[in-house]
Amino acid sequence: MMAVTGTGILTLSEHELNACKPIQGEGGRAIRAFCPFHGSDKQRSLRVDVSTGRFYCFACGAWGYTEEARRRWRDSRQQERRGAQPTRPRQALRSIPRPKPQKEPEPARPDLPDLMQRFQAALPGSLGEEYLRRRGIPLEVAERHGVGYAAADTWPGRRWKWGRVVFPLTDPGGRIINVYGRAVGANDKVPKQHRHDLLSGDKAYFGGAALCDGEGPLFVCEGPFDALALMAAGVKRATAIIGVKGWRWAWAKDVQAIVLALDGDQAGQAAWQEIARGARLRGKQVYVLPPEAYGGHKDAAAAWAAGALKVGDIPKPAADPVQAERWDEAEAYRLFKEALDATAKAYEIAQPAWCHPLFDAIEKAWDAKDMGALRATTQRAVTLAREVIDRSPPKKGAEQPKKPAKRRYGTDRKDVPRCHGCGAEVQHWTVTRCQHCRNKDREDATRGPRMAQDGF
Questions:
Q1: For residue 28, what are the domain limits?
Q2: CA–CA gap between residue 258 and residue 281 (Å, rounded)
Q3: Same domain, 370 and 431
Q4: SS3 helix, strand, coil % of the chain, rounded to 5?
Q5: Does the model's pTM come out above 0.90?
Q6: pLDDT per residue over 77-105, tens digit each?
Q7: CA dihedral defined by 344, 345, 349, 355, rounded to 10 degrees?
Q8: What is the mean pLDDT of residues 186-203?
């Protein structure tokens, strides 16, 4: 029989527990058994927590852990010691919930490459070539970028009597995901519902290969004709994202400089501001083609057709004049933790859109061991988080500055009834003496005659 020595933490082996006739209890969350420490044989006073391994006897007070629980604890401690200085301190810090990654698009049809080859072969000498010429796009530029022509009876989507100019929509690897068809004819001759047609399925970019190939900044525009107009004007890298909401940052990892050439309308101006903010948070250089470059026209395609497009000098990314700072592990860890704490705090308050791209920039600077980028990213995270905290309303239940208690009759008020003797507040205007003054008057009335009799 075991004896309890002192009040230290005890250990219970599996063999000893099995000898105490254990049974399952509390829905399998605990084990009840006879206590081996004080010799219980009438009731199962020993309780063992299955998840933690901790046991306690309700009769003698003995407590401790099973051998299996202690073994798990020692193993976890050894793993913590081995990983005391992780290569990336993110493992020891709070993590920010990340949005689900965008699903990679799949081809709308399996025969898109063969279909596109037939359209490209039909472009020379067709109505599509004439339509391109009227919009100022040379045939050589269109053929170099895979543009084709589909007659009215060959287009797989909505048919148009004069056919459509067809653009392949590809991913950065050059795989054709979908095809876009623009109806041949001026806007006043083509109904709006027939002008644009896209096969059902996922979308991609016209000129998607430019995200990985080519030199210089990448021009980003909305429509395929905008991209053709920019390339006809001398731009080497241009891609059309087909609308203002089709941008994918996962495809632009290798792009270092971006020139935004979106439409001059309200939707285009709002879109380029959002893309520019995301690019700066990811450490990319951003340039914008202002509406003045379109000469009063809506987009680059209309400006090029009118001869008013002014691209100007293509900007080059400026070299960093600051010498690279030497990597300091301790200082980098401090900056990394400060940046992540600021980002996590801002995310808890308002979940701003800049949290995830800034978090990616922090990780990128840490992986590249770029001390300067890590310091700049940390400063940007702290500044943005401070703005979020300053704008956020106080939480419910938070400690507020105490206001002075309101008194029913303030001493500084003159419109309250007061005692004519001492000036204290009384309950009503008809009361001229307070209780204290009335008691004093009674004492004086009874004491007066005695004082006279005593000769005072």
A1: 10-71
A2: 13
A3: no
A4: 40, 15, 50
A5: no
A6: 787 776 555 445 544 444 555 556 668 88
A7: -40
A8: 88
Alpha helices by DSSP H, 83-223: 112-121, 127-134, 139-144, 192-195
- Does residue 147 fall inside a structural domain? yes
Measure Cα distances from 93 to 78, 180, 322 in Å.
Answer: 20, 46, 31
* Calpha distance 216→257 (Å, rounded): 7
Query: How many C-beta atoms lie closer than 10 Å to residue 326's C-beta?
Result: 8
Burial class (CB in 10 A: 0-12, 13-18, 19+), 285: middle
Domain boundary among 256, 272, 305: 305
Rounded CA separation 151/136 (Å)? 21
**What is the rounded CA–CA span in Å between residue 263 and residue 348?**
35
The answer to whether the CB of 59 falls within 8 A of the CB of 35 is yes
> Coil, strand or helix: which one is 242?
coil
Amino acid (1-letter code) at residue 454 = D
- The span from the CA of 295 to the CA of 184, in Å, is 25
Q: In terms of C-beta density within 10 A (0-12 exposed, 13-18 middle, 19 or more buried), how is residue 219 classed?
A: buried
User: Per the structure block, which two tokens stand in for 14?
Assistant: 């599996």
Tell whether 335 is covered by a domain: yes
Domain of 172: which CATH number? 3.40.1360.10
Domain check: are 60 and 120 in the same one? no
d(CA 109, CA 376): 46
Q: Are 147 and 268 found together in one domain? A: yes
Phi/psi of residue 239, each to 5°?
-140, 145
Per-residue model confidence as pLDDT tens digits over 255-266: 888 888 888 777
For residues 261 and 227, is the Cβ–Cβ distance under 8 A?
no
For the record, the structure tokens of 215 come out as 């030199």
Residue 252 lies in a domain: yes
* 398 within domain boundaries: no
